[in-house]
Specification:
Layout: E1 7-13, E2 17-18, H1 28-42, E3 52-56, H2 64-71, E4 79-83, H3 89-102, E5 108-115, E6 124-125, E7 135-136, H4 152-162, H5 167-186, H6 214-218, E8 239-248, H7 250-255, E9 262-271, H8 280-291, E10 302-305, H9 310-320, H10 333-336, H11 343-360, E11 371-378, E12 382-390
Parallel strand pairs: 3-4, 3-5, 10-11
Antiparallel strand pairs: 1-8, 1-9, 2-8, 5-8, 6-7, 9-12, 11-12
Helix pairs in contact: 1-2, 3-11, 5-9
Length: about 400
C-alpha cells in the first residue's frame, strides 16, 4: 500500500545537560512533558487531537511513553509505545510515526526520544548464586561475560586507525564542533528550539558547550593509553535530554494553513558487525543511496549526525566526499553531549531549525524542496538514516 505524505510541523528539545548536572533531579516525564506542550503550542494543535506517542528510550523501565503522555496532558485515549534501538531510537520513533500517519492509522502523532540518565534506574546483574554479590552493568547491549562487542569508543578507535586519522585531525574537528555550537548560541539560533525548564539562562543553552583552545585538547590523556587517539575532548559525553516532534496528516496540515514543515522522503536502518558500530551511519546512508540512485549527499542543504567521536565525522565526510565543516553546522554531540536514545530525535529537531525555523524567523530561507539528512550509529552494530524535505 502506498503511503501518503506525513508532515513534521513542530520540533522542540530541552537543553542537553551533563549527567548529574542541569537536569540532575528531573525524571524522564518531568524532562519531556514541557517539550511536548511547547511543540503543541507552536503549531496550535489541541492536545485532545493527539492520536498517540512513540518514544525512543534505552534506560527506563516499563513504558515511559505512557507516563510522559499522561504527564503532558494528552488524552487517555492516546496510544503510547516505547522503542529501544539504542542511540537510533529517537530517529526511528519519528520515522515510525511518519509511517503510521502515512498509512492512515493516525492523523496527529508525537514522536522523539528522551533520556534522564541522572535519574534512570540502575541496572544490576543477578548473581549466579547466593554467594556472589550483584554487580552493576553498563548500557552496551551485549555487556556480560560472553560479550564480543567493544564499547563505542573502542569502535571509534578502530575507525580512526583504519582511516589513518591522527590525533591532531580528531582534535581539530572536535574544536570546530565546540566553536560552531558557541557561534550558533551567540547568534541566538537555538531560540524557538530549546524549551527552558525554568526562566534562567542556563536552561536555554546546552550545558557542555564551552569555549576551548588547542591547549585544552593537547593536555588530554587518551582512553587507551599512550598510543590511543581518542580522549574526553574529541569524543562525546552522555547527556540528559529530550527532543520531540509533531507529525500530522495532509488533511491536518491543510487545516493548519499548510505551514512550513519537514516531510519524510526516505529512511533505512542497517546492521553492521558489532565491533564496527562506529561505521553504522556510513552504512545506513550508503544503503539509502542504493535505494534512491538520484540521492547526492554532497547536495544536502543540511546534514546532522550524532557522533561518538570526531573519527566518525571525518570518515563520514571522506566516504561521501563532503567537507567535515558541512556536518552539524550548529555543533555536534562532541560539543552538546550524546543523550543516547534521544540523540536521533535531536538531529531532526536541528534539521527543523535549519530548514524550517530559520525561515520562520527570517534568518535565512530554506527553499521548498531543500533536503536534510539525519544519520547515526547505534550500539549493538546498527545504523539509521532519514532523508527529510523542507515543504
Amino acid at each position: 500500500m502506498a503511503l501518503t505524505d506525513a508532515y513534521i510541523v513542530a520540533a522542540r528539545r530541552t537543553a542537553l545537560g551533563r549527567v548529574g548536572g542541569l537536569h540532575a533531579r528531573r525524571r524522564v516525564d518531568d524532562l519531556t512533558a514541557p517539550v511536548i506542550r511547547a511543540a503543541l503550542a507552536d503549531c496550535k494543535i489541541n492536545p485532545a487531537l493527539v492520536d498517540g506517542i512513540i518514544l525512543g528510550n534505552a534506560t527506563e523501565v516499563s513504558n515511559p511513553a505512557r507516563l510522559i503522555s499522561l504527564t503532558a496532558g494528552l488524552p487517555e485515549t492516546a496510544s503510547a509505545i516505547t522503542i529501544d534501538r539504542q542511540c537510533a531510537s529517537g530517529l526511528d520513533a519519528i520515522v515510525q510515526a511518519c509511517r503510521m500517519v502515512g498509512a492512515g492509522e493516525a492523523e496527529v502523532m508525537l514522536a522523539g526520544g528522551a533520556e534522564a540518565l541522572s535519574t534512570a534506574p540502575w541496572r544490576v546483574a543477578r548473581p549466579k548464586n547466593l554467594h556472589q554479590m550483584p554487580r552493576f552493568i553498563g548500557l552496551e547491549p551485549l555487556t556480560g561475560d560472553a560479550a564480543v562487542e567493544p564499547n563505542m569508543f573502542e569502535a571509534s578507535e578502530l575507525l580512526a586507525r583504519e582511516g589513518r586519522i591522527n590525533r591532531g585531525e580528531l582534535d581539530q574537528v572536535a574544536m570546530r564542533s565546540h566553536l560552531a555550537a558557541l557561534a550558533a548560541r551567540d547568534a541566538k539560533r537555538f531560540i524557538g528550539e530549546i524549551v527552558p525548564m525554568r526562566a534562567i539562562p542556563e536552561e536555554a543553552r546546552d550545558e557542555m558547550v564551552r569555549d576551548v583552545s588547542a591547549e585544552d585538547f593537547e593536555r588530554q590523556t587518551p582512553f587507551s593509553g599512550g598510543g590511543g587517539l581518542l580522549t574526553a575532548a574529541n569524543t562525546s559525553a552522555q547527556a540528559d535530554g529530550a527532543a520531540m516532534v509533531i507529525v500530522v496528516s495532509p488533511r491536518v496540515w491543510t487545516e493548519l494553513g499548510e505551514p512550513r514543515a519537514l516531510r519524510l522522503v526516505a529512511s533505512t536502518t542497517i546492521g553492521v558487525a558489532p565491533d564496527r558500530e562506529a561505521f553504522g551511519a556510513i552504512a545506513a546512508v550508503q544503503r539509502l543511496i542504493g535505494l534512491h540512485n538520484d540521492l547526492d549527499v554532497t547536495k544536502m542543504a543540511a546534514i546532522e549526525t550524532s557522533e561518538a567521536s570526531a573519527a566518525q565525522i571525518i570518515q563520514f565526510a571522506r566516504h561521501f566526499g563532503i567537507d567535515p565543516a558541512a556536518i552539524n553546522i550548529g555543533g555536534g554531540a562532541i560539543a552538546r553531549g550524546h543523550p543516547l536514545a534521544a540523540s536521533g530525535a535531536v538531529l531532526v529537531v536541528r534539521l527543523f531549525s535549519t530548514l524550517v525555523r530559520a525561515f520562520a524567523h527570517g534568518g535565512g530561507a530554506a527553499p521548498r524542496g531543500a533536503l536534510g539528512l539525519a544519520a547515526l550509529s547505534a550500539m549493538g552494530g546498527l545504523g539509521s538514516a532519514a532523508l527529510l524535505e523542507a515543504t
